[in-house]
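Hello,

Our lab assistant flagged a job as stuck in the queue for most of the afternoon. It eventually completed. Since we weren't sure the result was trustworthy after the delay, we are filing this so someone can double-check. Below is the sequence as submitted and the structure that was eventually returned. Let us know if re-running is recommended.
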Amino acid sequence: MRNGNNKELIEKMKTHINTAVSMELTERQRYCITEYYINSRKMVDISKDIGVSPSVVSRHISRGIAKLKKTLPYFYNN
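-- returned structure --
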């Protein structure tokens, strides 16, 4: 793949991910995933923020990631 096409694909993927995160995830899933993956926070700390156990944070993350994975076919079909 040529470099220019790769940049276009990356931008398209970023747009898709942002759209999927805002449309497919619950507010809690968005928060937990952002804090864990983007801000590199520990689940224990996130759990204190939202008043749940770390296992609940883990479930929010797992279910949110599963939802995002389901949207990937939409990206590749466009």
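-- support follow-up --
The delay was a queue issue, not a problem with the job. The result is valid. The mean pLDDT is 87. The two ends are 18 Å apart (CA to CA).
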